[in-house]
Structure formats: C-alpha cells, structure tokens
Design a protein that fits this description.
It is built from 20 helices and 24 strands. The chain has 605 residues and is an alpha/beta fold. The protein folds into 3 domains: 236 residues, Aminohydrolase, N-terminal nucleophile (Ntn) domain (Glutamine Phosphoribosylpyrophosphate, subunit 1, domain 1, 4-Layer Sandwich); 174 residues, Glucose-6-phosphate isomerase like protein, domain 1 (Rossmann fold, 3-Layer(aba) Sandwich); 152 residues, 3-Layer(aba) Sandwich (Rossmann fold). The structure holds 5-amino-5-deoxy-1-O-phosphono-D-mannitol (M6R). It holds the Pfam family SIS.
Length: 605
C-alpha cells in the first residue's frame, strides 16, 4: 500500500526522499512523487510507474529544498496517473496520504460549492483543499491541519507540508501506521522504520488518533482530543531494517532460502533444549473452549492448517475466517474462547478491524505477527512474534512457514494443557519440529528440477493444486502463490472435492499439482490423482520416497521430499510450492518481488 516519507533536514531533501521511497517499494505502488519547500516556495514532481521514472524526472527537473514529503501510491480512488499521484497540492498546502478518507465525497461536494474544485479523482486532494480552505479563512497552517484532520472519517496516515514554512510538517495517524524519526537538528516521518533507517534509528510511533507538529527541534504530539501526548522514543535495531538481497536475484528467492534459519531461530526462541515449550506467560489453554482464528491471504491459510492441528492434536474446536468476512458477520464469540489473529505486517486493515470486534468478547485476544511494533501486536492481550525477519517480497514465504511453526507450538501447548499429550509426546513432537530446518535444506536443494518443471508450467493457462487434510490449505496457498507472481490462473482444491465440479476442467493442458505425503489419507488422494490421469491430466506428484515409489507411475512429473511425520508436513511442503511459483514467474519474466496490482501490507478495506 501507499508509502509516506517526510524530511525536515539539513541537506537536500529530494535524494533522501527518493532513497526512503525506495525502501518502501516493497509495499507495492504504481506512481510516486515528492514535494519540497525551497525559499518558501512549494513545488512537486510526480511520475507514473516505478521510482526510476521519478528519479529520471528529477534529473531533468530537479527539486531543491531541505524540507520535503514523498509518496508511493497504490491506486484506490482513480487510476495510476500523474494527476492522481501524490503529493496533492492545493494553494499553499501539499499532502501525502495512506488509507481511505471515507467521507471524501461529502467533503468534496462541500468544497466545490465553496469554489474549491478538485483536479484529481483522489480522496487525498480533498484533504489538501480542505486545509487550503481553512488557511484562506485565516487559520495558521497548524490549526488548518488540525481542523482538517478533525473532519476526516476513515483510515489514514497523513503528512502535510506548507508553502512559506521551511521548518514545519504535520503528521497524523488514524488507522494507518506512521513513525516519526528523530535526528540531530533534523526530523523525519515514515510509514515504517525501514524507510527511515538510513537517516535515524530513533523512532516514535504515533498512536491511534495522534497528530504531530514537527519542526527541526522535535515533535509535539497531540492525541485525538488535542491533548499533549507523551509517546516513547525507541531505538530500533538497524539490523532488523536491512533490506538487501544479499546476492540473490530477488528478495523472494532470499526469503525462501532463509527459511531453515529463521525457523530454527523461532524454535530456539519458543522451546528449550530439554524438549519443553517456552511460550510467554499467559499462553495457557486451561478452560479455553474454542479458538477462532482470523487473518487474510496467506496468513489465513496458515490458520487453516492450524485448525487441523488444534482439532486433531489438542481436541480444541477451532474456527477460521478471513478477516474481511469475519468483521461484518457479527459472529457470536464465547467468553471462554480465544481469538487469534495472524498477520505478517500486523497492519492489515481487515485483520485489525476483526481484532477490534473480538476485543472484550473473548477471554484473550492473541496475535501471531512478524512486526512486533505493529498495531495488531499492540492491540492484542498477547502477541507472539514469528521472528521471520523483514519480509520484502510481496508474495509471503518465510512469514508463512514461521507462522505455521508458531501455530504448531501453540497447538502443542493447547494439547498439553488439555491433557491430550503428555511430556513424552510433547518432546517427540518438538523433536520432529527441530528436524524441520535440515529437511527444508533438502527441499531447497530441489530448486533446479523445480525450475525445469516450472518452464513447462509457465506455458499453462490454468493450474490446479490438490491436497487432503492439512495439505488442503497448502494447496490453496500453492495456488495463491502461483497466481500472485506468475499471473497464471490457479486454484487449490481439497482432493475429495475434485469430482464435485473442478474435474470438468481437466484435460491434457491443465497441470495438476498433488501434494501428498505418505500419510493416512494418501491412498484416497492417490485415487483422486488417478481420476485426473484417467482424463489425461498432467499430474505433478509431490510426496516422499514411499509415496513416489507407490503412486508416481503414470504421473507427468514427481518430486521427492524427505520423510517427516505427516502432521507437520505442510511446513516442509510449502517450500516446493513456493519454488514452483518463483521459477514459473521467472520463466514468464514477471516482476517477482513487486507483482502487478499487489501491495505488501493492505492497510485499506
Ligand atoms: O500482513 P498480513 O499477513 O496480514 O497480510 C495478509 C495478506 O495480505 C498476505 O498474506 C497476502 O495474501 C500475500 N501477498 C500472500 O503472498
């Protein structure tokens, strides 16, 4: 989603703004722009497409000034055009914005009546015009911004810059995250600390409803009732903000390869060498009657896998829902239940809204997040970091397997607390998980044969993924990954559902990827696979050595993964699914790390 930066600096702002925007590229965008104040004059440059287009424009039409704001826009209201790109400017005001102003139509009509006409189709220009109107009515920039913010409904992060004010920026947060960076005689604003890392490691996160007046001397922060607010300054670990490909061609490739290490780290963090769990105090499932898991996209598939674990290992009823449905469904929640929210970014608007719905209705709101400073983490009773490290590729990979790992540990804790497994069984399960990093390294070594298969997959128009039991959600995840970055239509199905409809799609041109470790359901999955092959479907069977030996004959291709206890196999089988998507995208020449239309962190509904 959109990225925001702001600089009140001691050096030229344009290069700093562009560099910071580069660090926000991972969020996804389709146009970019910056504005500066130079000698009191407010000016801007905007370009459609990648940041390189903005950089080129700045070569020919430089922007001077040590104060500036910048933006990468992920189009919501209006197409990706220069006119719709931010910063939006109205008279002496320039604004960048992330989020959606829900009452912008009413405001726009009101402003039009007063003679303030809008050029663009965006909700953001309305904000700039409103501030301009307040200034025309005699308000100072600070009061104009304050009164503008008070009129806005919806979710937003905003940063204002004003003509004639070289030492002033106003920042505001409601629903979308915003960080303030402290320098020496300099101040910064960014959508996240990653954007600001080259400039400062001293960060203050604005809280919901906060707005801040920034000058080079510092920031005065006000809460939603305009009272002075003290917000802590924290030092972020620059290591945690590193966004380098480390020799890999793409962030996604690096993140896939990192999985054995980050999963080993997560296991080390949450377990002891003696074979016990070391989860935070408060993770106690005694008396818990149900767990409701809510998330979006890949994170929701992690919940879907975990449902099998909570029910099968712990005997705990588990429900899952995508956040965008959950929040409006008004589901009744048991006061003895837990609501669990899973999110890489911790800022997904729908997941956050679902969390707020559950708050107060359940015994405990728990989150499993990658960004421990995120809104979802902060608003939970208990937040468990997945310790995946920064994930830049829009297609989630290492966050997915780390989410699965932490969810598996939670399910084991639930099973132990509920007396479903004893210490010995728990230690055996933890042993199986501890073997995962080694097995994942083996799976990663299949990259070359997977690339060869992907060359063929790249020619397909439709691809199906099949799985049974906990491999079913993995089929959904495999299909999502493939369509996200290769733009090939792909669907995941529960193997048993095939004959209830999707089998009509099967012919020699439709590859069907069957993910089936040799578990208790294997024979049933193989029967479904035979049904595909009987209709000339091209089957890629991904299984272990026994599975491939037993059922591989007649398949178009096979991939052999190492043996592992089937219960946690989805974590291992995620790797070939990710590699298939990655190599198919490479074969098709698509933009792997920033696929079209997608944003890393979806902070609007
Ligand atoms: O940050 P979150 O985990 O809350 O994001 C949820 C989804 O938007 C995300 O998983 C999305 O589906 C990814 N692009 C999947 O690769």
């Amino acid at each position: 989603m959109c990225g925001i930066v702001g600089v009140l600096g001691n050096h030229e702002a344009a290069p700093l703004l562009v560099e910071a925007l580069k660090r926000l590229e991972y969020r996804g965008y389709d146009s970019a722009g910056i504005a500066t104040v130079n000698g009191g004059k407010l000016d801007r440059r905007r370009a459609v497409g990648k940041l390189v287009n903005l950089s080129d424009l700045l070569v020919h039409q430089p922007l001077a000034g040590k104060s500036g704001i910048g933006h990468t826009r992920w189009a919501t209201h209006g197409a990706a055009t220069v006119t719709n790109a931010h910063p939006h400017k109205a008279g002496p005001v320039a604004v960048v914005h992330n989020g959606i102003i829900e009452n912008f139509r009413a405001l726009r009509a009101e402003l039009a009546e007063a003679g303030y006409a809008q050029e663009s189709q965006t909700d953001t220009e309305t904000v700039a015009l409103l501030a301009q109107r307040f200034m025309d009515e005699g308000l100072s920039p600070i009061h104009a911004a304050r009164d503008t913010i008070a009129r806005l409904e919806g979710a937003f992060a905003l940063c204002f810059l004003f003509a004639g004010e070289d030492d002033l920026m106003i920042a505001a947060r409601k629903g979308s995250p915003l960080a303030i960076g402290h320098g020496t005689g300099e101040m910064f604003v960014g959508s996240d600390a990653i954007a600001l890392a080259p400039m400062t490691d001293r960060i203050t996160y604005l809280e919901e409803g906060d707005w801040a007046v920034l000058t080079r001397k510092g920031a005065e922060i006000f809460d939603s009732l305009d009272r002075r607010a003290n917000r802590a300054e924290t030092r972020i670990q620059i290591e945690a903000t590193r966004v380098e490909k480390a020799g890999y061609k793409h962030f996604m490739a690096k993140e896939i390869a990192e999985q054995p290490v980050v999963i080993a780290d997560a296991l080390k963090h949450y377990t002891t060498a003696e074979g016990t769990l070391r989860l935070p105090e408060g993770v106690d499932f005694t008396g818990v009657d149900r767990i409701t898991m809510v998330a979006c996209g890949t994170a929701s598939y992690a919940c879907h896998v975990a449902k099998y674990w909570f029910e099968q290992i712990a005997g705990l009823p588990a429900e899952i829902d995508v956040a965008s449905e959950f929040r409006y469904r008004e589901p009744p929640l048991s006061p003895a239940s837990w609501a669990l929210f899973v999110s890489q970014s911790g800022e997904t608007a729908d997941t956050l809204a679902a969390l707020r719905y559950a708050n107060g209705k359940v015994a405990r709101v728990v989150s499993v997040v990658n960004v421990p400073t995120s809104s979802i983490a902060r608003e939970s009773d208990l937040a468990l970091p997945i310790l995946a490290g920064v994930e830049i590729g829009v297609a989630s990979t290492k966050a997915f397997t780390c989410q699965l790992t932490v969810l598996a540990l939670l399910a084991l804790k639930a099973a132990h607390d509920r007396g479903r497994i004893d210490d010995v069984a728990l230690a055996a399960h933890l042993d199986a998980l501890r073997n995962l990093p080694g097995l994942m390294n083996h799976a990663l070594s299949l990259s070359t044969p997977i690339a060869a298969i992907a060359d063929d997959l790249a020619k397909a128009q439709d691809i199906l993924f099949l799985g049974r039991g906990a491999m079913y959600p993995l089929a959904l995840e495999g299909a999502l990954k493939l369509k996200e970055i290769s733009y090939i239509h792909a669907e995941g199905y529960a193997s048993g559902e095939l004959k209830h409809g999707p089998i009509a799609l099967i012919d020699a041109a439709v590859p069907v990827i069957v993910m089936a470790p040799r578990d208790g359901l294997f024979d049933k999955t193989v029967s479904n696979m035979q049904e595909v092959m009987a209709r000339h479907g091209k089957v890629l069977l991904i299984s272990d050595a026994h599975g491939v030996a037993e059922a591989g004959a007649g398949a178009w291709k096979t991939l052999t993964l190492p043996d592992m206890p089937p219960v946690f196999a989805p974590i291992l089988y995620a790797i070939p699914a990710q590699l298939l998507a990655y190599h198919t995208a490479i074969a098709k020449g698509t933009d792997v790390d920033q696929p079209r239309n997608l944003a890393k962190s979806v902070t609007v509904e």
